[in-house]
Write a structure and sequence with these properties.
Strand order of the largest sheet: 3-2-1-4-5-6-11
Number of strands: 13
Shape: globular
Structural class: alpha/beta
Largest sheet: 7 strands, parallel
CATH superfamily of the largest domain: NAD(P)-binding Rossmann-like Domain
Strand content: 15-25%
CATH class of the largest domain: Alpha Beta
Length: 322
């Protein structure tokens, strides 16, 4: 097949290109930048800004069998929840989606995937860290906890509208905290698994580990390899979604820190400090994806974190920080 991946310079996008190439497909990657940690596997990689409608139209000049739209302005809690980037997050990501849908409509692309987020779920359903509700049909009445979540919810509706009105075969997944090797691990946009791996990696045994908030907030985390499997299965199914792609193995941030310390063989004391937190609890509900696709993620968090910690440790060594 001939496939287009938007956001191919990012974490999930670069892994997706590798996976699609391993299947024997011809892949064009598009992004503002090349992948940070490895050479792209794409047959054709175009650098450019998808906020420019002419550029979006130009990259869809081939008869693509599949288009994966993962490009977005995003990051971890230290980027999304501080409030300083709200306008840019909403404007940049919405503009990309508007441009790509219009370009794909004009190019008569029939099959398109959009990566939404668990951040679309109402904050009031995620107040209890032990019992969050992230079932797909709980998204309305809408009340996301961030402008990032509001933009994702708007774009979900945008894709569904194009699907209805223009006969486009749209597939939408709500990603839940995807992590793994070759993801951002420093600089402010990293997510909690990478941040904790970095902090544990740099700390001396017996030292301190800083954690934002009380550490009782819960999440589930999905390794990128399982994310790709679910994404491709959804894209090639007759189910549009939106559907969760995430793990049901919920853990507190304190528990995640303990897991990483166990992997690293270090004993650190936790120092809780002020910081942006997001919702109190979030966990993937996988009943719908199992019903519709006959599949759900199964890899344990520990297995994914072991390979991620080893990779981040290598980055720290290469940077002279160990």
């Amino acid at each position: 097949m001939k496939i287009l991946v938007c956001g191919a310079g990012g974490f999930i996008g670069s892994h997706l290109v590798k996976r699609l190439k391993a299947e024997g497909n011809w892949v064009r990657g598009v992004d503002l930048k090349h992948p940070e940690f490895s050479e792209t596997a794409a047959d054709d990689f175009i650098i450019g800004d998808l906020r420019d409608p002419k550029f979006a139209k130009g990259i869809t000049d081939e008869p693509f069998d599949e288009v994966y739209q993962l490009a977005a302005d995003m990051g971890g809690a230290g980027f999304v929840f501080v409030g300083d980037h709200d306008a840019a997050i909403m404007h940049n990501s919405a503009t990309v989606n508007l441009n790509m849908l219009e370009a794909c409509k004009e190019a008569k692309v029939k099959r398109i995937f959009y990566s939404s987020s668990a951040c679309i779920y109402p904050e009031h359903n995620q107040l209890d860290p032990e019992n969050p509700n992230c079932e797909e049909n709980s998204a309305y009445p809408a009340a996301p906890d961030s402008e990032y979540g509001w933009e994702k919810l708007f774009s979900e509706r945008l894709y569904m509208a194009y699907g209805r009105n223009y006969g486009m075969n749209v597939h939408i997944a709500r990603y839940h905290n995807i992590f793994g090797e070759e993801g951002t691990w420093d600089g402010g946009r990293e997510k909690s698994p990478a941040a904790i791996c970095r902090k544990v990696g740099e700390a001396s045994d017996g030292g301190e580990l800083e954690i934002w908030g009380p550490g009782t907030q819960t999440r589930s985390f999905l390794h990128v390899s399982e994310c790709l499997e679910g994404t491709i299965r959804l894209m090639r199914s007759d189910f549009a979604g939106p559907v969760n792609i995430g793990s049901e193995e919920m853990i507190s941030i304190n528990g995640l820190a303990d897991l990483v310390m166990e992997i690293a063989g270090k004993n650190l004391s936790k120092k809780h400090i002020d910081g942006p937190l997001g919702v109190n609890g979030r966990n993937s509900d996988n009943a719908l994806i199992e019903k519709k696709l006959g599949w759900k993620p199964s890899q344990t968090l520990k297995d994914g974190m072991e390979v991620t910690y080893q990779w981040i440790s290598m980055q720290l060594k290469d940077a002279g920080r160990l």
